[in-house]
Amino acid sequence: MDGYGTVLSIRNGKLQEYQTTAVSCLKGDSARRTGPGTYATPDGTVLTVRARAGGDRASMRADGSVGSRNLRRIAELPEACTRPAPKGPRAAFDVFWQSFEENYPFFAAKGIDWHAVRDQYRPRVHAKTTKGELFAVFREMVRPLYDAHVVVQDGDRRFGQVRPGTDMPTEELDAKVKKFIVARDLKNARNLQDFADGRITYADLPGGKGYLRITGFGGYAGDDTSYAAQLAELDRTLETVLGQDRIRRLKGLIIDLRINGGGSDALGIHIAERLTDTPYLAYSKRARNDPADPTRHTRPEPVYVTPAKGPRYTGLVAVLTGGSTVSAGETFTQALMDRPGRTVRIGQPTQGVFSDVMARKLPGGMVVGLPNEEFLTRSGRTFDGLGIPPHLTEPVFTKEEFDKRKDSAFDRALNVLGG
């Protein structure tokens, strides 16, 4: 695979992933063939493999993702994949460190000397280091990254964090914010309704304006359902929310992403397709692909927004964002940046994490997640780390805002929309 530290074995109806570094090769996920060129993982993800001319190259795409990954045939598995995997705490440390060394793109931007980190922490790991002690070492190593797409997991024990000064979009925070919005912002609204298993809310505001709140790009048909089922539920939602009658009278739309935990980038593109009559570039996606050089990447793959066949709203949109706008919530925000017609971002910068998360298994059973991709604007800019900035800055769900029952970003949006 071009980038991603991965080798695939595809034979006899089975796809087997091998996660590789310079010091390791560990079996990853597997999938069973379900049709011509399609494979399903145990969690229901559908992988589509398409051969290219000549037969020695192919591409692979996972449903819900906006990009494909390029494959090149090799004669046999790397030698490391044919011998027993390394064991013990030191081996786990080395695979952990090497996985970041070869795939993480942002050490320079974050001012982190990853080699110095290895020199500091590796002497603390030895044959008798417990899993709890090793987990603590890993946690300390990645804490300075403040990267919401970096996760260390050992069974029920999990470490992850967000950028300082921001909040993780939890169910508790979502419930608190939703109650506040309904009581304050939507008290004079009509047709207030939840859709997509509660992940999407819509209301008609006075003056012909609309309010669309999206708290995630997934789980639309339940947590353990296929991408196809979620896409179908999203289409049913959009047929109601942005149906022909409503679009005809809509004079402005607020899209509230301030509490959004992410999910499928493809679902975000699907919504953007309802907001334009003109095709345009949403962003381009690339992955780090040289283990020795963090400045080298795969060829950027363009991702386009193509107008939907159904009703489309093309008027003024105010997008509300904040530090709890995470991952696919951010790629959706980015997909609206060059939308034809006026789109105004209001609030605070998004979290600053865009990549799909690479899940890497470690000797001994721990799992680490890390990013290895960048999402580029038309001019080649990325927003990793600092997030996408708003056009108009307003406080977002601060203690003062709650205490004074203020929602400055929402009120600013109404003002921008002319209401």
Quick tags:
419 residues; alpha+beta; seven-stranded antiparallel β-sheet; 11 helices; 21 strands
Structure description:
25% of the residues lie in helices and 27% in strands. By secondary structure, it is an alpha+beta fold. The strands form 4 sheets. A 7-stranded antiparallel β-sheet has the order 1-2-3-4-5-6-7. Strands 10-11-12-13-16-17-21 form a 7-stranded mixed β-sheet, sandwiched between helices. A 4-stranded antiparallel β-sheet has the order 9-8-19-18, covered by helices on one side. Helix 8 (265-272) runs parallel beside helix 9. It is globular, with a radius of gyration of 23 Å.
Record field, number of beta strands = 21
Give the amount of beta strand, in percent.
Answer: 25-35%
Low-confidence stretches: none
* Overall mean pLDDT: 96
How far the N terminus sits from the C terminus, by CA atoms, comes to 52 Å
Largest sheet: 7 strands, antiparallel
Strand order of the largest sheet: 1-2-3-4-5-6-7
**Roughly how much helix do the residues carry, as a percent range?**
25-40%
Describe the global form: globular
Give a short summary of the structure:
With 419 residues, the protein is of the alpha+beta class. It has eleven helices and 21 strands.
